[in-house]
Structures are given as C-alpha cells and as structure tokens.
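Quick log. Single chain, no ligands specified.
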Amino acid sequence: MVTFWLIALVVFLVVEGATVNLVSIWFAIGALAALISAICQAPLWMQVFWFVVISAVSVAVTRPLAKKYLTPRHRPTNADRFIGMAGFVTERIDNLGETGSAQVGGRIWSARSESGAVIEAGEKVRSVRIEGVKLIVAPMDSMESAMAEKE
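-> predicted structure:
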C-alpha cells in the first residue's frame, strides 16, 4: 500500500500544481498521512481512516483562511462617487467606433454607452458604472433630466 499512497500523493500534488485554485492540496496532505501510516505498517482501514480524517481537518482549518486571503476584493476609489451622477456628452459616444466622452461631476471622462446605442454630443446622461478608465453612461429620459436640473 505504500506505493498506492505515494502515487496518490504525487497525483494530488500534480493536480494542485496544474490549477490556479486550491483544489487538491488537502488530499495530498491526507495521502501523506496515509503514506506515513503505511510505512509504519498500519492496517488498511487505519490508512484510509488517516487519509479521510487528515484531509477533512485540513479542509476545515485551511479553506476559510484560503478563501479570505485568495478572494479578490473590490476596493472602492474616490472615482466611485461619480456613479449615478448626471452629466452631458461632450463628444459623440459610439461604442463601435470606440469614441466618446462625457462631463460628469465637473470632469471629462472617456465614455461608452451602456446599451451600445450612439449618444450624440450635448445629450444628458447618467453614469452607471466605471470599467477600467471608461465611464459607462446611459441617456437620461426627459423626466429624469428635469429632476437632475433641480439637483
């Protein structure tokens, strides 16, 4: 059984090395524990027991820590304050032509239309989100435009 656990350990480590996420490291640790028990000539049931228990404990202990430190987080910037603000198009927005700019919050942004529709210069828009350095905007309807003028 030593050979079996050694092969299992190598396979789990190769799988772990071939992926970007933590996938099988816990099973590799369990296989190592089973390998050690096989070297000590423990019965098969005890080798399987150590594999299952050590794998489960490894998952229970390290998975929450791994998720906490490996999960990317959104970090808000001061640019997020422009989301939802009203503005106007300063250069015709054409997503296909990759052109367009809008003034929102007193700043000129490279802008793209949320729906993909062309938005002509001078039209009022509301910022929806920021993607990279582009402000994604949507045209304002007449009622929303009137409310924005009161702000």
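The chain has four helices and five strands.
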